Amino acid sequence: MTAQLIDGKGIAGAKRLAMKATVEKLKSEGMVPGLAVILVGENPASQSYVKGKIRDCKEVGIYSELVRFPESVSEAELLDEIRKLNEKDSIHGILVQLPLPKQISERKVIQTISPAKDVDGFHPISLGKMMTGQDSFVPCTPAGIIEMLQAVNVQIAGKHVVIVGRSNIVGKPASLLFLNHNATVTICHSKTTPLAQYTKQADVLVVAVGHAGLISAEDIKPGAVVIDVGMNRNAAGRLVGDVEFEEAKEKASFITPVPGGVGPMTRVMLLENTLKAARNFFMEREPH
Ligand code: NDP
User: Fold this and answer.
1) Which are the contacts of 193, defined by CB distance < 8 A and separation ≥ 6?
2) pLDDT in the model for residue 288
3) Which candidate, 219, 259, 221, places its Cα nearest to that of 240?
4) Is 88 a known active-site residue?
5) Residue with the nearest Cα to atom 30 of ligand 1?
6) Catalytic residue flag (residue 53)
7) Which pLDDT score, from 0 to 100, does residue 287 have?
8) What b-and-e string marks burial along 185-212, b requiring 16 or more CB atoms within 10 Å of the CB?
9) Annotated domain spans of the chain
10) Which end of the chain, C or N, has fewer beta carbons within 10 A?
11) What are the tens digits of pLDDT across the range 15-36?
12) What spacing in Å lies between the alpha carbon of 131 and ligand 1's midpoint?
C-alpha cells in the first residue's frame, strides 16, 4: 500500500485563500492587520525566507514592513527598533529572522518582542502559556503540523506520537502541542539509543533533525503517519527531508513530501498568528 501524501502546499494555499476573505472583511471594518519583519545581514537563506513571508502577506492583504539592518548592527540598536515596533499601532506582529550575528543575543531579542506581538511564538510567555494549556501564539512549524493532520482527518487524541528532535522552535513545542491534543508523546534526540526502538512504536512520527536519510522504512511502524520536518540539500543540490521518502511511502499510511509538506504550512501559520494578534489588538481597543 502506498501512503497518502499530505499536500502541505495545497492545504496552505486553501488556507491563504480563506484568510484573504477574512482580511478583506477586517479591512472593510477599518482593521488592517500588520506584520513587521526584521532582517539582519545578507544570509541568502534568511533573505529568501523573508521574501517569502512578505510575499505571503501581500497575497492575503496583510500590511507588511521589512526592516533591514547590516550584519554589523549592535544589539542595542536592534532592541531599540523592536521596542519602537512594540509601540506602533499599525504593527500587530513582529518577526525577527533567525539566526542573528554573534554580537546579538537571540534570547534578548526574543524577550524584547512584546508577547502580544510574538507571532513566532518563541517568547517564554507564549511557551509558558502553551505549557499550561492556555491560549497563546504557537510556534509556526508545530502549529502547521497539527493543522495538516487535521486537514486529512488524522486523529491525534490517544495516538502515540514520537518526535525526533528537541529544538526550542520545533521538537519541544511540538511535543507540548501534541500533549495538549491528548496524544501520548515520546521525545527523542541525539542521545536516544537505539533511536529505531522508539520510532518503530510511533502511530505518528515527527522527524525534525536536519539529517538527510536519518529515518528509513525499517524505522517506521506499518501504517504510521510520517511528518518530515527536515530540510537538507542532497549531493545534487535538491531539497530533501530527514526521511527516505521513496521507501517510507510504501510503509506509511500518510506522509509529507519535502518540499511541499511542512514548509508551506509553517509559512501560512505565521499569517494565521498575525491575524490572531491583529484581532486581539482591535478587540482590546473596542469600547467595553
Ligand atoms: P536543531 O539543529 O535546532 O535541532 C535538531 C535536533 O535533532 C536536536 O534536538 C538534536 O538533538 C536532534 N538530533 C541530531 N542528531 C540526531 C540523531 N542522530 N538522532 C536523533 N536526534 C538527533 O534543528 P531545528 O529543530 O531548528 O530544525 C530541524 C530540521 O527541521 C532542520 O532540517 C531544519 O532546516 C528543519 N526545519 C524545517 C522547517 C519547516 O518549516 N519545514 C522549520 C524549522 C526547521 P540534541 O538536542 O541532543 O542535540
Assistant:
1) none
2) 53
3) 259
4) no
5) 230
6) yes
7) 59
8) bbbbeeebeebeebbbebbbbbbbbeeb
9) 30-114, 140-263
10) C
11) 999 999 999 999 999 999 999 9
12) 21
What is the pTM (predicted TM-score) of this model?
A: 0.97
The atom number, within ligand 1, closest to the CA of 267 reads 40
Cis previous bond, 194, omega within 30: yes
140 CB under 6 A from ligand 1? no
Q: Which of 177, 133, 136, 148 is nearest to 277 (CA)?
A: 136
DSSP 243: B
Residue found under cell 521596542: 83
Centroid of ligand 1 to alpha carbon of 32 (angstroms): 36
What angle separates helix 8-28 from helix 262-285, to the nearest 10 degrees? 20
How much is the average pLDDT of 71-89? 98
Looking at this protein, which amino acid is placed at residue 97? Q
165 is in an annotated binding site: yes
> Does residue 120 carry a catalytic annotation?
yes
Q: Does domain 140-263 have CATH number 3.40.50.720?
A: yes
Q: Do domains 30-114 and 140-263 have the same CATH topology?
A: yes
167 is in an annotated binding site: yes
Q: From the candidates 7, 56, 118, 120, which is the catalytic residue? A: 120
CB atoms within 10 A of CB 6: 25
Average pLDDT over residues 203-232: 98
Regarding the domain with residue range 30-114, which homologous superfamily does it belong to in the CATH classification? Leucine Dehydrogenase, chain A, domain 1 (3.40.50.10860)
Q: pLDDT tens, 157-187? A: 999 999 999 999 999 999 999 999 999 999 9
Q: Are 175 and 156 in contact (CB under 8 A)?
A: no
What is the spatial distance between Cα 174 and Cα 277, in angstroms, rounded to a whole number? 21
Best residue among 98, 205, 226, 229 to mutate for probing ligand 1's pocket (most ligand atoms within 8 Å of CB) is 229
Q: Give the separation between CA 162 and CA 187, rounded to whole angstroms.
A: 6
Specify the residue for cell string 513571508.
53
